[in-house]
């Protein structure tokens, strides 16, 4: 979230708020690695005091526009929502998260405080005690913990086709191991150990849900 991204996102949000054909706004990140990993630290290190103040106010402006939107704004959190990313998610009216989502305000580790409204919104959502813990420790929590404390409204469970795909990955890996190979090719894509672990977790969770 550098100044250019902040400006572009602010313009985009304002545009869809005014669009008569838009009823609901969903903000998400591309892919499954991150919703928003946070502010651009490298860019911040190059800012003077005036630029830093302007940057902080730009982030606050965006979150206030989202929070005050007359249309529902949903954060679809896929992966990391840290620092400014967590603050932007909190400004949304609802947070629907993937199973690999994680939240945190790690600014304290850089000697900073959440500057885009996190110190106000987090206590309102999760309570003062938990908010103080997250802000002062920089602790990062997973999707299940976020749901437990009220930061996430719902955890999205992968659709059945994704579970089926995960099972195919495991089957392909087992076959590769029988043949003495270290990885398996599935649909032209290399299946590494990380993919196997992710597939295993997905299948296990799906089986647990079915049992319930």
What does this protein structure show overall?
The chain has helices at residues 3-18, 41-45, 49-67, 84-91, 118-126, 128-137, 143-149, 160-178, 193-211, and strands at residues 25-28, 34-36, 73-77, 80-82, 94-98, 102-104, 140-142, 154-156, 184-186, 189-191. It has 212 residues and is of the alpha/beta class. It has 2 domains: 3-156, 2-enoyl-CoA Hydratase, Chain A, domain 1 (Alpha-Beta Complex); 160-211. A hairpin with a 2-residue loop joins strand 9 (184-186) and strand 10. The longest helix is centred in the first third of the chain and has 19 residues, at 49-67.
In short:
The protein has nine helices and ten strands. By secondary structure, it is an alpha/beta fold. A hairpin with a 2-residue loop joins strand 9 and strand 10 (189-191).
List the helices and strands and how they pair.
Elements: H1 3-18, E1 25-28, E2 34-36, H2 41-45, H3 49-67, E3 73-77, E4 80-82, H4 84-91, E5 94-98, E6 102-104, H5 118-126, H6 128-137, E7 140-142, H7 143-149, E8 154-156, H8 160-178, E9 184-186, E10 189-191, H9 193-211
Parallel strand pairs: 1-3, 2-4, 3-5, 4-6, 5-8
Antiparallel strand pairs: 6-7, 9-10
The order of strands across the largest sheet is 1-3-5-8
- Helix vs. strand class: alpha/beta
Quaternary structure state of the chains depicted:
single chain
Instruction: Give me the CATH architecture of the largest domain, please.
Output: Alpha-Beta Complex
Radius of gyration: 20 Å
The number of helical runs is 9
Dominant shape = globular
Total domains, how many? 2
Low-pLDDT regions? 186-191
The share of residues in extended strands comes to 15-25%
CATH superfamily of the largest domain: 2-enoyl-CoA Hydratase, Chain A, domain 1
CA-CA gap between termini = 40 Å
Mean pLDDT comes to: 83
